[in-house]
């Protein structure tokens, strides 16, 4: 990027950097070729004049904003065709390439669910014949779809969904119905006015029997006219905290008929005469949710990298207050409290990316096994995906909020883009499985694992550490990274043991297990969190160590500093747990604190270089505070001038309302 016009602070920061930024960029992308391919797509999209907004999207009406998002995302799809035609599901791998949609609209694309859930469900839940018929059409966008599962009355409890699909053997069709107000589909992205098809998750009935929830491929609008088909009631659910352009919708059915073969039949089937063939495992119907929970980690890493870039660059440009009398005002990044707010967020983005890749590889392996009929690893994958999605989304939202606060008043401006990123990340705590609900799923797995510990069974890999800590009360502490990881595992084992004991203690005569579970559930969530933190620490440290050996020593050192900062930060945050479950002393904690402050100082000179390493184009950052050139104040004023209120010196409301008010006051 050109260095002219870059503010002096950022020029100086970049000169200080001790490693080669390009090397970090290639590492994050997964190689030089990946960087080149990503940049090529970004360059074509971001320089297309049709993509540039004259009026910033936040000034548009709700309706205009949607229409603008559709217009620009259609242009994007057209451009992307050239780059994605060789893409098949088999070579799909999460990458930073899809970040390009943030360069098109600031908020969420109305097509997100088409790519993120409609296609993955068709690929993973259809049989071969169905796949051959539907997937190419969806990939080329001949049909546009979404994933309609949640209803007004039920989101978390899928078994409680009310939409029915009743098989009629006379016509070989399913009849879809929305029996109550609470059975309306509610939330699906793109459902309102974008999609003409959707996956509908409904309760299956055949031959008078109920077989639970299954996915169906349903056309809801006419392909030519886009008018909702007879028997379909569809619309938009209205404004939200974020996701304004996601086009979330509602959907109801009135005796709406679809062919028998529109039930996705890879796992379970209904034969012509209505005979039901059971799936090998009924949880395979939930497969898309597992896929998305895995992918969400990459999304969070990316959103964190955007927020980090904005807040770190701004903190280098912004001067405020004097540390010493008669000296110039400090760059705010030099206040150690500011570094404390910023650097953990930067390091968390790296942690989520590397743990996300590890989880993705686990997902691919388990799925391959499932393909061969081996379901053994499915519960472990589910437990991992649940707690990682839950904890990482909550952490990411906390970090984005901290980045916003770190930018003071200007962080509150929509033009900083931090409020929009905040909305995007906050939503992820709820969608695709609400935080507590997913944490309790992992807790179920932990309780079973603890039964295994007690029965001296061999445990599956991600919980095998539990056996190591089952007997000792307080584990020997060591102030090393290995010691920290071991400390986190000890805390997870201790909390698992206590949650298990709490259930037993609530299991008085006459008490159901479920009630005892509910009574112990705060402890169960706490055990899940501790387990997840142990995994985040262990995997991120081993992955960052491995990566540091593949790059130059200067970059390797920075990667290890970031990874160690993550471990040290969380040791200090969770010092209470460590005091309970390890022999850590107050002197050890003081040493950790000193090391933490040392790490902040070590990272400080490279801070701008590290966020430059995320390589996020200005058009994708969308921020007055975070642009590469650091012209913060100029951009804030340029954006303020775009306010429609500034188009006229006196607003008509003065004559209509204020003046009469003032006149009345005189009387
Ligand atoms: C080339 C191709 C390229 C193109 C494409 C490439 C794509 C590229 C990507 C593009 C970027 C896109 C980025 C993403 C953006 C996405 C945005 C998303 C927006 C948001 C979408 C949504 O928001 S969409 C709705 C999600 N809505 C939920 O998320 C409900 C949660 N609610 C539950 O998920 C269940 O309701 C809940 C609680 C489990 C209980 O389910 P339940 O009652 O049936 O089960 P129980 O609790 O009774 O448990 C009974 C036993 O089942 C076990 N089990 C349960 N689930 C299991 C499972 N999944 N797998 C295995 N095992 C499972 C459990 O562990 C028990 O095991 P055990 O008995 O042994 O203990
Ligand atoms: C921005 C956004 C986009 C979405 N997109 C889609 C989409 O494209 N398609 C789709 O189908 N859905 C979508 N959803 C819906 C989403 O998946 C659900 O909102 C989510 O699964 C939570 O369900 P719920 O809203 O019913 O919450 P509830 O389950 O009603 O949760 C409310 C509270 O009850 C608690 N609770 C519920 N059950 C339990 C339990 N068993 N134990 C303890 N506590 C419990 C929760 O922890 C929470 O505190 C979207 C949601 C959002 C916010």
Automatic annotation (TrEMBL):
Primary residence: other
GO cellular component: peroxisome
Family: Belongs to the acyl-CoA oxidase family.
Keyword Nucleotide-binding: yes
Residues bound to FAD: 150, 189
Protein name per Swiss-Prot or TrEMBL: Acyl-coenzyme A oxidase
Annotated ranges, domain Acyl-coenzyme A oxidase N-terminal: 21-144
Source superkingdom: Eukaryota
Domain Acyl-CoA oxidase C-alpha1: 286-447
Keyword line: ATP-binding, FAD, Fatty acid metabolism, Flavoprotein, Lipid metabolism, Nucleotide-binding, Oxidoreductase, Peroxisome
InterPro entries: ACOX_C_alpha1, Acyl-CoA_ox_N, Acyl-CoA_Oxase/DH_mid-dom_sf, Acyl-CoA_oxidase, Acyl-CoA_oxidase_C, AcylCo_DH-like_C, AcylCoA_DH/ox_N_sf, AcylCoA_DH/oxidase_NM_dom_sf
Pathway given in the UniProt record: Lipid metabolism; peroxisomal fatty acid beta-oxidation
Active site residues of this protein: 432 (proton acceptor)
